[in-house]
Every structure is written in structure tokens, then in C-alpha cells.
From TrEMBL:
CDD domains: PaaI_thioesterase (cd03443). Keywords: Hydrolase. InterPro entries: HotDog_dom_sf, PAAI_dom, Thioestr_dom. Residues 72-141 form the Thioesterase domain. PANTHER family: 1,4-DIHYDROXY-2-NAPHTHOYL-COA THIOESTERASE 1, MEDIUM_LONG-CHAIN ACYL-COA THIOESTERASE YIGI. GO terms for molecular function: hydrolase activity. This is PaaI family thioesterase.
Amino acid sequence: MTEDTPTEAMLEEFDDRESMLQHFLDENQEFLSWLGTSIDHVGDGTMTMSIPYDEKLTNTRPTAADDERADMHGGVAATLIDTVGGLCLRTAMDDPFGARIATINLNLNYLRPATGDLVATADVVRVGGSVGVSEIVVESTTPDGETHEVAIGQGAYRVFRGD
């Protein structure tokens, strides 16, 4: 009989990886929880997270028409890029929770204003012995139903393994 790894033992308590990570986020990451961040999909080398549109997370343009919806603040997209970029690295590791991960570089480009929910998908470029890199695309769907890329980013993260 083999003993479960800590990750396998944690997974036994939950239906899937998404619900396990959502529980971790809700219980341990108050800022992300306050933003309404959700784990939408977890795959091997990829992850999708989202933050719902909320007036408290917006900037109103001084020239905006009265009926124009305010834009999500760019810092919310940057937070989402940083978070999903680092977390997705764990999906490519043998022991996803046996390491700590810290951002060492984050680059992002804003492509257009976001006036709806933010949905970010990260893909692992590489996870080495001490550094991991991911690429991230953030999309937003306008109130009239059009989905556009609103930001793209790349993150480099220091991986501190428990060895």
C-alpha cells in the first residue's frame, strides 16, 4: 500500500482540482476573495480564472456618456494576470503544493478597456528547477455580448521547492 502525497490527500476531500483551489483561495487569499476571483478551469499546464465586473472595481472616464458602462481598473487585470500566471505553474509540477512561488517579473500590455467580467487563461511556457514562466491572455465580454482580448501578459516566477 502506498501513501498518498499531500496533494492526493487534499484532492480526496474535493470533487475536482477547481473546487480544491477555490477553497484554498477563499480561505487564504482575502484580497482575491474580496475581488470575487474564481477558479474556472484547471488542466495540465493551463488554468483559467475570472473576476466578475463590479462597479467598485471601475474607473469612470470624465468624458463618458451617462449610459456608458465604466471600465474595469487595469490593476484588477494585472492582479488576475499575476495570480493565474503563478498558479498555473503548479499544474506542471510533480508536487503542486510542495513549493512556494513568488513573482520576479511581470509584463503586461493593455489592449482595450474592459467593460465586463475578466477571464484570464494562463499557459505554462516552462517550469525549471528554480524559475517558471507563463503566458496569459485576459478577455472581457461587453454588455452587448462581444468578447475581446483586453490584456496579454507574461510572468516569471521564482519556484522555491521543498527539497
